[in-house]
Specification:
heterodimer, A: Rossmann fold, Dihydrodipicolinate Reductase, domain 2, 2 domains, 7-stranded mixed beta sheet, 6-stranded parallel beta sheet, 15 strands, B: alpha/beta, Rossmann fold, globular
C-alpha cells in the first residue's frame, strides 16, 4: 500500500446535516484528502468549504476532478438517485446518506447503475460501525447468543424540521428517517430478509406537521420477530437528541445496548440539563470505511443492497398504515 | 377493626400477597388454603396462619377476604363460589382464562353481598400511578404514543405458564399488565395486532400494537430473557405537549451491599402489591368502591384475548 498517495474525497451537498460531521471526519483521516465540496446552495457551499479548509466547487467540476476517487452524498433523500447516478458515471466510489432513496425503484436503479459503472455504493448506516453494535454482531455470528428469537429497537429523535418534513424531498417522516437504522441492524444481525411488516403511525405529536412524526413498526422474519419505535418523540428541551437502543433475545443470551449512553451531563443557565456524548465517533468510522474500501478495492460494510432491504421495511410500513394490514416483503 | 384474609393458592403470587398483607396495618392472613400441603403449610406457618387443604372447609370459616392466587384456568369455580358464599373477593389477574369464564365471574359479582377486585397491580405501582395522573392532568397534551416493555426470564416458579391452555402465553399473562394500564389511560383501542415468537408451542415473546386512530401503543412482553437478565419494565407516553418516561430500572432509593455478596433495597419502598391490597382492605373495612371491579378485568381480558387471537390470525382484530 502506498501511503503517500491519499484518497481524494469530495462531499456533494450539505442538505443533510450529517454531511458536516462526515466532512470533519475526512479531514481527520490520514489516508484521505478532502479535495472539495459542492452544494446546491453556493452560499452554504462556500461556508462549508471554508469551515472544512477545502475548495468550493460546482458538482460538475467536482465530478470531473481526476484527483477525487470517492464522494460522499448528503443531499435530500429524493435527490440521491440523480446525484448517485452522476457520481457513478464519473467513476467515483460513493457513500450516500440513509435512507438510500425514497422509492424501491430508485434504489434498484442506483444499485444497478453503480454495478454497471464499476463503482461501489455504500449506505451510511453509521450504527453498523458502532463498536457496541459490532460486539452484538460478533456474539451472534460467533454463536454465543444462540438462535435469535426476538429483537426490539428504538431510534427516537427530535423533530428535525426543514426538508425532512417536506414529503417531496424526504419521501416520508420519522418512519422513513428512523426505521431504516434499526431495520438495517435487524437485517444485519439476522442475516435474513424480512417476510412482512405491520405498522401504525402518522402525524401525532407536532400539530399540523403534515408528515408522520411517530409510529411503530413490527417486522416478521419468520424465525424471529422485531419491533421498532422510530418516533420523533423527543420534544424541544429533552436533554439529548434521541437514542438507538436495542434488545436482542437469543436462545443462549440476551443482549442489550444503548448506542448513545456515554454522556456527560451539563446544566447551565436557561439551557437546562443537556447530555453531551463522549462515545465512539461513528461518522468517522463510516467515512474510514469509504476511504479504506477505495484504497483496498474492497466492499464497504453497508452496501446499496442493505440500503434497499432497510428501505423496503420502511416503505412497507407506510403501505401497511394505508391498508391496515400486514404487507409482504420484498415489495412488488 | 381487623380484616382477616384467606389466601387460596400458595404459589408465587400467594407468597407475594402474604408478605404484602404483613405490611398492612389492620390486616391479617388467617388461612392459607392449598391442596398441596408442601406448599400450603410452609406459607401458612411463615404467615402465622392456619393451613387448610380443603376450599369447602374454608368456605365454612369466618374470614373477611378470600384472595384467590390460583393459576388462571382455575379462577372461575373458586371465585364464583367465594362470591356466592358472600365473601369479599380479591382475584389475581388475569380475571379468567376465557370470556365465558370471565363473564361467569363477572355475573356472580353483580348483586353479590361482598366486594370484589381484580389484581391489576400497575394501577397501584409507584411511578405508573404518577404517570397516569400527569397524563390525566393534561400535562402531555393529548397522549398519542405509548411504548411499553415488560421483559424478563421465563417464570421459574411454576410449570403451568408454559402451557397455552392454562396461561394463554406471555401476552395474556405478562403483557396484560401493560394492556390493562394502557387501556386505563387511553381507553379501548379500535383494533389490536400482535406478533409472537413461540417456544415449545407457547407464546414466549409478544409484540402488540394497539390502534387508537389518532395514536398508537406498543406493548412488548417476553419470557425469552436469559436467566441472568433482570426483569425489566419501561413505559413512555408522548403527547402533543410533551414526553413522560418511567424506567423500572431506576428509582431505587436505598441499597445495602454486604461483604457476603447479598444486597437489599429500600426498606421503606412500598410496591404496587402492598398498595393494591391495602386499597382493597380499606374498601372492605370502610365500605369503599374497589377501583378495579370484575367488569374492568373483563374488558382487559377481552383486549388481551384479541391480541392472542391476532397473533394466530396474522392480521388485526377489531375491538367491538
Amino acid at each position: 500500500m502506498i501511503w503517500m498517495e491519499k484518497v481524494g474525497v469530495g462531499v456533494i451537498s450539505f442538505e443533510h446535516f450529517h454531511a458536516m460531521s462526515y466532512a470533519a471526519a475526512f479531514n481527520s483521516i490520514r489516508e484521505c484528502k478532502l479535495v472539495g465540496v459542492a452544494d446546491p446552495d453556493p452560499g452554504r457551499g462556500r461556508e462549508m468549504a471554508s469551515r472544512y479548509s477545502t475548495r468550493y466547487m460546482s458538482v460538475e467540476d467536482l465530478l470531473a476532478d481526476g484527483s477525487i476517487s470517492a464522494v460522499c452524498i448528503g443531499s435530500a433523500n429524493a435527490r440521491h438517485r440523480e446525484d448517485v447516478g452522476l457520481a457513478a458515471e464519473a467513476g467515483k466510489n460513493i457513500m450516500v446518506e440513509k435512507p438510500i432513496a425514497t422509492s424501491v425503484e430508485d434504489a434498484r436503479w442506483m444499485i444497478e447503475k453503480c454495478r454497471k459503472e464499476g463503482v461501489f455504493l455504500q449506505v451510511a448506516f453509521v450504527m453498523r460501525y458502532s463498536p457496541i453494535a459490532m460486539e452484538a454482531k460478533k456474539a451472534i455470528e460467533g454463536g454465543s447468543a444462540g438462535e435469535i428469537q426476538a429483537i426490539s429497537g428504538t431510534n427516537h429523535g427530535s423533530m428535525p424540521g426543514g426538508w425532512f418534513v417536506d414529503r417531496e424531498l424526504s419521501g416520508g417522516g420519522a418512519i422513513l428517517d428512523h426505521t431504516v437504522h434499526v431495520a438495517d441492524l435487524m437485517n444485519w444481525y439476522l442475516g435474513s430478509r424480512a417476510r412482512s411488516v405491520f405498522a401504525l403511525g402518522g402525524n401525532r405529536l407536532h400539530e399540523g406537521l403534515g408528515i408522520d412524526d411517530s409510529g411503530f413498526v413490527l417486522v416478521d422474519y419468520g424465525s424471529a420477530v422485531g419491533s421498532i419505535d422510530p418516533s420523533w418523540s423527543r420534544p424541544e428541551g429533552h436533554p439529548i437528541w434521541g437514542d438507538v437502543r436495542m434488545r436482542i433475545f437469543g436462545s443462549e443470551a440476551t443482549i442489550e445496548f444503548d448506542g448513545f449512553s456515554q454522556n456527560i451531563g451539563i446544566t447551565k443557565g436557561g439551557d437546562g440539563y443537556r447530555l453531551i456524548g463522549y462515545g465512539s465517533d461513528l461518522d468517522l468510522y463510516t467515512c474510514r470505511d469509504l476511504v479504506e474500501s477505495t484504497l483496498n478495492g474492497s466492499r464497504p460494510r453497508s452496501t446499496g443492497e442493505d440500503g434497499l432491504a432497510a428501505l423496503e421495511i420502511a416503505l412497507g410500513a407506510y403501505r401497511s398504515i394505508e391498508s391496515g394490514e400486514p404487507v409482504s416483503l420484498p415489495l412488488d | 377493626m381487623e380484616i382477616t384474609v384467606a389466601i387460596v393458592g400458595a404459589g408465587f403470587m400467594g407468597e407475594t400477597h402474604a408478605s404484602s398483607y404483613a405490611k398492612i396495618n389492620g390486616a391479617r392472613v388467617k388461612y392459607v388454603c392449598d391442596i398441596d400441603p408442601e406448599k400450603g403449610k410452609p406459607l401458612a406457618s411463615s404467615a402465622g396462619a392456619d393451613y387448610l387443604p380443603d376450599f369447602d372447609v374454608l368456605l365454612g370459616r369466618e374470614v373477611d377476604i378470600v384472595d384467590v392466587c390460583l393459576p388462571t384456568a382455575l379462577h372461575r369455580p373458586f371465585a364464583v363460589r367465594a362470591l356466592e358464599e358472600g365473601f369479599n373477593l380479591f382475584l389475581e389477574k388475569p380475571l379468567a382464562i376465557d370470556m365465558d369464564e370471565g363473564n361467569a365471574i363477572c355475573n356472580a359479582s353483580r348483586g353479590a353481598p361482598g366486594l370484589s377486585m381484580v389484581g391489576h397491580v400497575l394501577r397501584f405501582w409507584p411511578g405508573f400511578t404518577e404517570l397516569r395522573e400527569r397524563v390525566a392532568a393534561g400535562e402531555l397534551g393529548e397522549p398519542r404514543h405509548v411504548l411499553a416493555y415488560r421483559v424478563g426470564p421465563p417464570p421459574a416458579w411454576a410449570k403451568w405458564y408454559m402451557d397455552m391452555s392454562k396461561s394463554n402465553g406471555v401476552i395474556f399473562d405478562l403483557g396484560i399488565h401493560d394492556l390493562d394500564f394502557v387501556r386505563w389511560v387511553m381507553g379501548t383501542p379500535r383494533s389490536v395486532f400482535a406478533q409472537v415468537h413461540d417456544k415449545d408451542g407457547v407464546h414466549a415473546h409478544g409484540q402488540v400494537l394497539l390502534d387508537y386512530g389518532l395514536g398508537e401503543a406498543l406493548v412488548e412482553c417476553s419470557w425469552l430473557g436469559s436467566p441472568s437478565f433482570p426483569f425489566t419494565t419501561y413505559m413512555e407516553i408522548a403527547g402533543t405537549g410533551g414526553l413522560a418516561t418511567v424506567d423500572g430500572r431506576a428509582g431505587n432509593a436505598f441499597s445495602i451491599f454486604t461483604a457476603d455478596g447479598s444486597t437489599s433495597g429500600d426498606p421503606f419502598h412500598e410496591d404496587g402489591y402492598v398498595r393494591e391490597l391495602r386499597h382493597f382492605v380499606d374498601c372492605v373495612r370502610d365500605g369503599g368502591e374497589p377501583v378495579v371491579p370484575m367488569s374492568e378485568g373483563l374488558e382487559t381480558i377481552k383486549l388481551s384475548l384479541s391480541a392472542v387471537e391476532s397473533a394466530g390470525a396474522g392480521g388485526p382484530v377489531k375491538m367491538g
